[in-house]
Amino acid sequence: MVNKRSLTVLLHIIGCIVFLALPVFLTPDFPRSLNIFSNRPTQRDLIAYALMVSFFYLNFFVLIPKLYVTKKYVSFFSIVLLCFLIISLTPSLFIPDNRRPEENFQPMPPPAVNNPNNTSPGPQDSLRRMPPEEMRRMPPPQQFNRYLFGVLHYLFIFIAIVFFTLILTINNRLKQSEKEKLQAELRYLKAQINPHFLFNTLNTIYSFAIERSAATATAVVKLSAMMRYIINDSGKDFVLLEQEVNYINDYIELQRMRFGNSIDLNFNIKGNTSGKMIAPLILIPFIENAFKYGINAEEVSLINIDVNIDDNQLQMIVENNKVKLAKALEERTGLGMANTKNRLQLVYPGKHILIVKDADKFYVSLTLNLE
């Protein structure tokens, strides 16, 4: 599979080849221009286009970042102008026109004069009207026009390259800013989630310690595994699905140890988890909400958690009874769900389906495309 960097390099190589082929195929001299070694105009164009390719990368990697972005506009435009002069003058220096000026010169027809004998003027009449010295001093019009056309042609392409590199730079900087903003938002959301997990787990172990339960040691081991996952792996963009599932298993086992038979808890995982990647801590908020806000000692507490993995698609369904909550708890629940939804939008844009139903039971269905 070709990675993004290799694809970018390949596109640059193809773009340079296509650009350098333009003087050969888009010239009035085609197909005579195919014989590059004998066609001087094509040779000059190839040199100019090769210099423009060099200027493109010089402008993109050096001039714009070092001068234009830092607002050193005088230096930037001075160097750009110097580059254009080099591009427009160098081809003619290396590949001069091998025709003599008088071969390109076509003298103007002689002006009409009174000819009483009604005879045609001869060559001697034209030469008599324009001295040879003056004729030699006149610039050959065709050669000058051809040179002017070439300079304007180079100028048009040169300006297009300058604007194209500016657009690319602005686009890359916008993408980089968006990426940095995305990473900052993810760090913010994770910072809100991780202390929440730790707080709940410590409460569970605290209750074991008060009761002097033999399960305290087991709970500490599971907490250690959870903390190791949070510290070492939660900062990554993606982790192995097996690690995320192990974290959920440890969390649920701690809740089983805490609540015992006081809740009806069903947890099932179907499918193959090996070799698949997932964003860390993306599933646990829905499970945590079911435990924290779906359990009440005065009511029947039911929690069902089903995780189904089919090829590269994961579906998790969490269902729990609705119990009476204090207003503060309800507000915190809404905040936690909002944070999780925001993170899903950032990490899995267009690759997830989240269904939340708040009826007789609280129902959450999350489908993720793990590709």
From TrEMBL:
Domain (Signal transduction histidine kinase internal region): residue spans on this chain: 184-262
Pfam families (alphabetical): His_kinase (PF06580)
Keyword Transmembrane: yes
Residue ranges crossing the lipid bilayer per the database entry: 7-26, 46-64, 76-95, 147-170
UniProt GO cellular component terms: membrane
UniProt keyword Acetylation, yes or no: no
InterPro entries: Bact_2-comp_sensor_kinase (IPR050640), HATPase_C_sf (IPR036890), Sig_transdc_His_kin_internal (IPR010559)
Coiled coil: 167-194
One MF term in the entry's GO annotations: phosphorelay sensor kinase activity
Basic and acidic residues composition bias: residue spans: 126-135
Alphabetized UniProt keyword annotations: Coiled coil, Kinase, Membrane, Transferase, Transmembrane, Transmembrane helix
Spans annotated as Disordered: 105-135
PANTHER family in the record: SENSOR HISTIDINE KINASE YPDA
Name of this protein: Histidine kinase
